Amino acid sequence: MELTLYREAPILRETRHLPAEVYNLARLLLAHSDKPCVFVPIRSMQYLAVIDHEEIVFVDRERPSLVQIAWQSFRRRERNALDERVEFEAAYYTPESLGIMARLMSEFPPAMQAMADKDRIEEPAAVLPFPGRQG
Asked: SS3 of 133, please?
């Protein structure tokens, strides 16, 4: 899938915090991908999240080439443990985007988890016997 995204200067920037589980899951999805970004459909909102190594952007199905919100400048190195929240900067690009942050914070994690669950192998693992050293 190829997508060209456009954005103007943000109308507002604010510092926020992302729960560790959400940030870690986004990084895990990206690490398991063979592409430089991951597309996560948020069906309940008709939005698409695009995760790359620098940021997470959100686009509306009604205007799929216009970035609504970007989560940027993740300060992951400032945390002392993997279970600590991560500070980031939210950039809002449209007036409509100002009112959807709370909903994104609640709808985005389940959408990512649904993607992660698709890759999960639910079958029992088989242990292959290898001949050991003969003593």
From this structure: coil
> Considering the domain boundaries, does residue 106 fall inside one?
yes
At a CB cut-off of 8 Å and minimum separation 6, what does 72 contact?
A: 54, 55, 88, 89, 90, 91
- pLDDT confidence of residue 132: 66
Residue 130 is assigned to a structural domain of this protein: no
Question: Over the stretch 51-86, which tens digit does the pLDDT of each residue have?
Answer: 999 999 999 998 888 999 999 999 988 888 899 999
Give this prediction's pTM.
0.84
Classify residue 92: in a domain, yes or no.
yes
> Which residue type occupies 39?
F
Q: How far apart are CA 46 and CA 113, in angstroms?
A: 17
Q: What's the domain count of the chain?
A: 1
In a domain, 2, yes or no: no
Query: Residue 53 in contact with residue 30, Cβ under 8 Å?
Result: yes
Q: Please enumerate in sequence order all residues whose Cβ is within 8 A of that of 74, keeping only pairs 6 or more positions apart, or say none.
A: 18, 23, 55, 86, 87, 88
